[in-house]
UniProtKB/TrEMBL annotation:
Keywords, in A-Z order: Amino-acid transport, ATP-binding, Nucleotide-binding, Transport
Single GO biological process annotation from the record: L-amino acid transport
Pfam annotation, one family: ABC_tran
Protein name: Urea ABC transporter ATP-binding protein
């Protein structure tokens, strides 16, 4: 289980997150919602350790990892698909996937079949440079790279941003498949309300860097959407 307690985080002198608490339980898809600039990406980076927490705590499987490095968290079983994908443009698709193995507990040098099974286009592109792929293909690569280490928690930051509808459907199917297996927790930050409603179990809405609302799918009604999410 992933748990965030009273987290405060930000950049430089700016405090972006204030007193944020959330939990992701076994097999759950927990969705993080909010308008642009409310702190969703900041929260993802803080959970992964890319940003240091100023106050509060982050625990994973009962261990306080607040002061642990991103590498430690990755090797403990937390996978991360960042906003903007952040693949290595000059490396091949295969080399990008091999980098995902750095966080594997098994120390294997073989890309697990499960990592690319849901993205059948990737094996045919192993020799191509990451930078030569389309945006949607890069997103699939970033997703598969995170899955290569067989994570127990998966952080997905805006996985549908700027990609074509067919790839969005592929990503929806992958999330549903992971959810059905029940082995991996997912924390998903996403702007598309339709998308998160189709995959999510529980929802947190951020406003001005704090949790303004939380609840299940049945509670995420139009009144809440109009109040916190409509631009």
């Amino acid at each position: 289980m992933l748990a965030v307690q009273q987290l405060e985080s930000g950049y430089g002198e700016s405090v972006i997150l204030r007193d944020v608490s959330l939990r992701v339980g076994p097999g759950q898809v927990v969705c993080l919602l909010g308008r642009n600039g409310v702190g969703k990406t900041t929260l993802m980076k803080s959970v992964m350790g890319v940003l240091k927490a100023r106050r509060g705590s982050i625990s994973y499987k009962g261990e306080n990892v607040t002061k642990r490095t991103p590498g430690y968290r990755a090797k403990s079983g937390i996978g991360y698909v960042p906003q903007g994908r952040e693949i290595f443009a000059q490396l091949t698709v295969y080399e990008n996937l091999l980098l995902g193995l750095e966080a594997s507990k098994s120390k294997t040098t073989v890309i697990p079949a499960e990592a690319v099974a849901n993205f059948p286009v990737l094996p045919a592109m192993y020799a191509r440079r990451g930078g030569d792929l389309s945006g949607g293909q890069q997103q699939q690569l970033a997703f598969a790279r995170a899955l290569a280490s067989m994570p127990e928690v998966l952080l997905l930051d805006e996985p549908c941003e700027g990609i074509q509808p067919s790839i969005v459907e592929d990503i929806r199917d992958v999330i549903r498949s992971i959810k059905a297996e029940g082995k991996t927790e997912i924390l998903l930050a996403e702007q598309s309300l339709e998308f998160v409603r189709s995959v999510g179990d529980y929802f947190y809405i951020l406003e001005k860097g704090s949790v303004a609302w939380k609840g299940g799918l049945d509670e995420l009604n139009e009144e809440i959407v109009l109040k916190y999410l409509t631009v």
